[in-house]
Amino acid sequence: MSQMISPRKIALLGGSGFVGTRLTSDLLRSGHQVTIADIEPSNSYPDLRLDADVRAFDSLLSACHECDVIINLAAAHRDDIRPISLYYDTNVTGARVTCQVAEKLGIQKIVFTSSVAVYGHQHGEPDEESLHQPIGPYGETKSQAEKVYKEWHAKDPAKRTLIIVRPTVIFGPSNRGNVHTLMDQITKGHFLMV
Fold first, then answer.
1. What is the residue range of 142's domain?
2. In this model, does residue 64 exceed pLDDT 90?
3. Does residue 149 carry a catalytic annotation?
4. pLDDT tens by residue, 96-105
């Protein structure tokens, strides 16, 4: 017999992007309430979006009010971000602020979207126990953010739940990222097939 999951009030940080839009759709279909907290507008769910920045305690506190789960998708992730300090500000400071907000509001469950970039170039297949050997500011700041979340969890592991997800390249319908560009170039014959 399958167990029903009770509806939750979920704050989806950085939820206006590609992953957030699809996740919002799935969460709503499953009966959850969603608040999208983002500095970017949500084309698909404008009525669910609140203008909130993961780096700013007060705006995030307001957006997460009355929620019982935080899912953090917010990230500085592009290769061309300048200044480079924006990686740290968004990924690490954003993690600290998220944990402070959770603590202030008594939110006991956080899902953090990290990245496979925390592993760097390793021999063999990494798993949850593999050492972090990040390369570049994105991987380094995602690794640092994981430490922030683990410290939050360690303060009360009996009551707090932390889930860290480390996806690889994300792509799918309506995404216009790197994988789409690569596939488009291949279909146009711009690459020599070997």
1. 9-187
2. yes
3. no
4. 999 999 999 9
